[in-house]
Amino acid sequence: MKSPDFPETQFSRRAFLRGSGALVALPFFESLAKPGAVFAASGKPVEPMRMVCIGLNYGMHPQGFFPDEVGRNYELPYLLKPLERVRNDFTLFSHLDHPGIKGGHEATHTFLSGIRADMAKSMPEGNISMDQKAAEFVGSTTRYPSMQLNVGGGDNGLSWTRNGVSIPSMGDLQQVFDALFQETNEAHKRRLARSYKLNSSILDVVRDDAKDLQKRLSANDVEKLDEYFTSVRDVEKRLQMSEAWLNKPKPQVDYQFPNPMPTDFYEEVPLYYDLMKLALMTDSTRVISYSINGWSGDSGLPGVTQGYHALTHHGMDPARLKELTIIESFHASQVARFISDLKNTQVEDESSLLEKTMVLFGSGMGNASSHSNRNLPLILAGGGFTHGKHKDYPKVGDKQTPACNLYVSMLQRFGMELDHFGTSAGTLDGLS
């Protein structure tokens, strides 16, 4: 029931502001965080940490992903054979997932948060995803606190703000390239500058209106008003960040798309990895999420005649499993290439880009055929961790190791001082 002291116009404004929160990540001001340039005792700059989260909407076939052996001398399962050349640069995890999460495809959006969107209000930080937690830490240090990309004609909601907003991703290669490297013309810059000023003025009026109401609200409405103020502050931060970067030149790179531009899944997927590497190299962003979905029309994958989703519901049919293996081996090969490219790219402090980039590859779906969200397929590469092993975390009694324990370790490695994230119970044992 609406409070009689809270006119309809105020509710409409709140709805508008919440809606606008879906457009961009929610950064902090530089003064509220500790990112930015880091210097060693010698005075030389230290390369900052980066994070790339790659999410497969349909998971990986468990029998082809998880090894039988644990430790260092495990045999790579058939789906992961393309990763052989970089096996010492990643760690493979078994029996990590998000406790209590179920719902099949409807729960894949929990991949980076561990929390369903409909459970967010009961959590201190909502269902904020790991990439957005890291993006808040980066703030306006980079042009984009984070970038959200998708391929395959869909978006499975990989990235979430602490306000429970799913951040839309970019699914057009040219759009991504232009955002990173194409300069905005002067006329458009002037229009954007006027827009930022106008929106700032509107927010001032909105904030004043809300403050006038604060003393006349019930306890329930005060809680709603707090959410409203949070939305206003978030919009303000995004406006200030955008304005600060408006007149700073974008980096120039020697990169060209194939001509003609690819039109199918098989040819598009590798190009997204190329752009992610360039984004990290130029420090345009330090946080990227990449959602990999299905396709419409012909996938372009040799030997694949059916849709991705249909093949995941294979019912152990050999013909369908053969085609699914082609798709999932292709994903493994592209991740292997990405890891290798980062490893062979040197950054300013003479380390490799892989040492300064955590690459998480996995899914919020454990077994798409049975719609299970248990035992998520997870691989972590780079980031300066000690790699080369298969680590298994079976239940001890009724205690399960949450995947969010891994995320706590990653966020700490990113530079954040925290001991909890999502549904974690600490850091991940054995990861050093």
Write structural notes for this entry.
By secondary structure, the chain is of the alpha/beta class. It folds into two domains: 1-32 and 183-249; 35-181 and 252-414, Alkaline Phosphatase, subunit A (3-Layer(aba) Sandwich), CATH 3.40.720. 35% of the residues lie in helices and 9% in strands. It is built from ten helices and nine strands. It has helices at residues 8-20, 62-65, 130-138, 173-181, 186-213, 219-245, 265-281, 308-312, 318-343, 403-414, and strands spanning 38-39, 45-46, 50-56, 90-94, 147-151, 287-292, 357-362, 378-382, 390-392. It has a seven-stranded mixed sheet with strand order 5-6-3-7-8-4-9, with helices on both faces. Helix 1 crosses helix 6 (219-245) and helix 4 runs parallel beside helix 7. The longest helix is centred in the middle third of the chain and has 28 residues, at 186-213. It is globular, with a radius of gyration of 22 Å. Mean pLDDT is 84; it is low at 1-36.
